[in-house]
Amino acid sequence: MKRALLAVALLLAATSAWAEWVKVAETRDTVVHVDPASIESRGGFRRVSVVQDYAAPETGGVRSRQVTYEIDCAGERLRSLAVAEHSAAMARGAPVSSSARESEWLVVAPRTGSNIASKASYRAILRFVCSR
Question: Residue 54 in contact with residue 62, Cβ under 8 Å?
């Protein structure tokens, strides 16, 4: 009986956590969601959890990717700290792969030197997180 109650409690917790994701960008083949509850300030930086859902499975059966980003709001740049790929939408299903390492900084500001398209999801993530 206790196990059944625990299972139901975990399911409800996972469902309510999923409901808090906010869509910040969408293209023909990808939808990007941010978890506002995951935003943490660390010095002059912020960390956030982001899920990228794909309309069709990518190589290796990846349907979604959950990324932890570190964001420098003042410098208008971000980098990934950890990535986990999943076989189902919204970072659910069987894990396909994961890694924890810092990427290079991506400058997303609309200025000379940025190679990020103005409508790229990186800018939407940065704007959303830095407005909080």
Answer: yes
* Contact call for residues 108 and 117 (beta carbons, < 8 A): no
Of residues 26, 45, 17, 41, the one with CA closest to residue 102: 45
pLDDT digits (tens, 9 = 90+) for 88-112: 999 999 999 999 999 999 888 776 5
Task: Say if CB 103 and CB 80 are below 8 A apart.
Answer: yes
Q: What would you measure as the largest C-alpha separation in the chain, in angstroms?
A: 62
Quick one: pLDDT at residue 44?
87
Given a contact cutoff of 8 angstroms between Cβ atoms, the answer to whether 100 and 89 are in contact is no
The CA-atom distances, in angstroms, between 65 and each of 89, 90, 111 are 8, 8, 28
Domains with residue ranges and CATH for the chain = 23-130 (2.40.128.710)
Please count the helices (runs of H) and the strands (runs of E) in the chain. 2, 8
By DSSP bridging, strand 77-88 and strand 45-54 are unpaired
Residue ranges for the chain with pLDDT beneath 50: 1-18
